[in-house]
């Protein structure tokens, strides 16, 4: 897993509209990069709608851009984005290569059955492209409070 101070792994992925988003093009911005297992499932919907509903806190208070990444195809990400009127970028990591690079792909278990999947990790990337905070195994209902608290800790004191 990545640690604070590590250089954030570069990536280029399609967004909900099929347009390519490159991490390198976002340099100079604070990025909240969160990985979620699957579009339009209960936990992922709770997490995404939480970001949507607190969007002004991310943008206006912390000047942070939020990006969600899942192993879904672009069409599924687009449907999810439209259905819940999400106001931030979602990226499709269909081969889960970016999730693997970030340490957000690993063994999970449900009902005693083990399988590989996305770990619900969130990374705050500073304007220099370095990992500033790592929030592993975030619970969807607690996601925004944890991320916004981390952003507040990173804010320069006035």
What does this structure look like?
The chain has 158 residues and is of the alpha/beta class. The strands form three sheets. It has a five-stranded mixed beta sheet. It has a two-stranded antiparallel sheet with strand order 1-2. A two-stranded antiparallel sheet has the order 6-7. It is globular and about 45 Å long. It has a single domain (12-154), classed as Glutaredoxin, CATH 3.40.30.10. The termini are far apart. The model has no long low-confidence stretch (mean pLDDT 95). The chain has helices at residues 42-53, 55-61, 74-83, 97-101, 143-154; strands at 12-14, 20-22, 30-35, 64-70, 89-92, 105-110, 113-118, 122-125, 131-135.
Q: Give me the count of strands.
A: 9
Spell out the helices and strands N to C: EEEHHEHEHEEEEH
Taking all residues together, what is the mean pLDDT? 95
Give me the number of helical elements: 5
How many strands, which pairing sense, and closed or not: the largest β-sheet?
5 strands, mixed
CATH homologous superfamily descriptor: Glutaredoxin
CATH architecture: 3-Layer(aba) Sandwich
CATH level-3 fold name = Glutaredoxin
Distance between the termini: 32 Å
Strand percentage, roughly?
25-35%
Portion of residues within helices = 25-40%
Shape: globular
Name the structural class.
alpha/beta
The total domain count is 1
